[in-house]
Design a protein that fits this description.
Number of helices of chain A: 8
Largest sheet of chain B: none
Radius of gyration of chain A: 24 Å
Largest interface: A-B, 25 and 21 residues
Number of strands of chain A: 20
Largest sheet of chain A: 6 strands, mixed
Radius of gyration of chain B: 22 Å
Oligomer: heterodimer
Helix content of chain A: 10-25%
Shape of chain B: globular
Mean pLDDT of chain B: 90
Strand content of chain A: 35-45%
Order of helices and strands of chain A: EEEHEEEHHHEHEHEEHHEEEEEEEEEE
Low-confidence stretches of chain A: none
Strand order of the largest sheet of chain A: 6-7-8-3-9-10
Strand content of chain B: under 5%
Number of helices of chain B: 11
Helix content of chain B: over 70%
Distance between the termini of chain A: 33 Å
Structural class of chain B: mainly alpha
Amino acid sequence: MSTAIDISSVVKRYGTATALHGVSMEIRDNEFFTLLGPSGCGKTTLLRCIAGFEDVTGGEIRLFGRNIAALEPNQRPVNTVFQQYALFPHMSVIDNVAFGLKMKGVALAERRAVAGRMLEMVHLSDFADRMPAQLSGGQQQRVALARALAPAPKVLLLDEPLSALDLKLRQAMRVELKTLQEQTGITFVFVTHDQEEALTMSDRIAVMSQGRVQQIGTARDIYESPHNRFVADFIGETNLIEVDVTAVSGGMADVVLPGGHRLRCPAETTATGRHHLSIRPERLSLTGTGELTGTVERVVYLGTDLQLLARLADGTPFTVRLQNSARTQVPEAGATVGLHLEEGAARLLAD
Amino acid sequence: MKGVRHYPGFLGIAVACLVVLYAPLVVVTIYSFNDSPSITTWGGFSWRWYADVFTGPEAERFGAAAWNSVTIAVLAATASTAIAVAAALAMIRGGRFRGKSATYALINLPLLVPEIVTAVATLIFFSAIGLTTGYLTILIAHITFCIPFAYLPIAARLSGIEEVYEQAARDLYATRAQAFRLVLLPLLMPGVISGYLLAFIISLDDFIITNFVKGAGMETLPTAIFGSVKQGIKPNIMAISTLMLAVSVLFVSLSYLVNRIGQKTRA
């Protein structure tokens, strides 16, 4: 698959503050690519650099092989769906959607037809002549989407477009966005701080923190094989256990768990010494005697699941997820339990 | 929390202020309809002084002065509004630049400098560069002191418009000029109209500066009224004053209404 956006060593500084520290990634054509990270991680800055609202301080961005540094926002074949939608309040819905085509010099009849089709695609044909202020948040969101798609951009940039919607609408829009991306075949670059959003929609995800890329991969990659502590902690829930690493070779490490049990597991680091092990709460089970031993502090009922909050002998907090079934035996608070790590559950992280 | 009406002394102070501010205007307005040539005794309702303004012995002088006033106000308001829009764009959309605070002070300084000082300084300036006083010098002076009045509502409106609208336009292939004309200007329009009307009114009733830079034989309505009053107050002056008051009230109300409509369209 060819490369849509090639970002290499992009640096962005504002005065003395650095928002992006040499970020590199390749976004493939026809891909739903997500930039995921907490606020202030640089994901929106990177998106704005691609759109042309910010100049990069260093490095370069290539769009289908072409360096776009010298291009004004209106000269870049990308469109943006803004977080606040930014629908033009003085124009009707259809005029908003047709705006990009008008600027491109498309004749009135044709741009009306295309805008009409776009509104149909987002199920808003009946609202063509309304003003944006007369629409609900979810409808405005879909108009913003139609407006950005109407000029048939090569890449669509989406800046946290779902964050202003309520939960139900947000979940419905996730499916709709993914469908739209598949229908149109346009490369989507989606910015979000919501990991669930990222995991459910993306072909690939770039996890960012403090202006750096922490890991790039599929949802499964970053959830099951997190590279470092930040990724393991930010994506989903995890137990971070400090362990002694005695030997590392061929991507596998020998570690000593608190309590003395020895374990061999995949490693993201090549250094020995003190490092962190990531163990997902659902990859643990209760046994009489397991690799780890802890004391139950509290059991939280979550409906489909039970969450067991426990503590190891050295004081490290620990979470176990148990399926809520008739066969599950739930220990009382204060009970001592043995924990068994499923095959491949543990992963040694880079710092 | 009690309403302001229950504050001690509210009624007395409010009434005193209203009387001092508006009683003279009310008296002038009422007496402009006085049939008697006296300005103190009521002789019945009549339009005669309004007729006098338009057809009486001074009609030609007032007519010419009114023409000057209105044309100067239109030109000065247009020019100062255009300059104020440019200034507001630089101040609010121009990012950070050296001397920004100083620029802000310079734009608003004319509001603070005593008008008589501006008047004398402007006159000295015009004579120093050898510009003959007359219509043109009045116009230049008016454009200058109208800028801050036009600037304030435009800048207030602009700072309430998020930059994301222009960015959305640029993103959708609009050039800088198109983004301004098709997106920012329509959103800014309530501020522009408000600023224009304010500048128009300020120009229309300026007296001090105009009186200094108008040159011989050149009159605007305020200077003509002043000249006429020097020979004693006649009821026709009250009629003219009432007419000017009506125009001012009309413009201020328009400005207010435009702003209110603007509030509603603010996204």
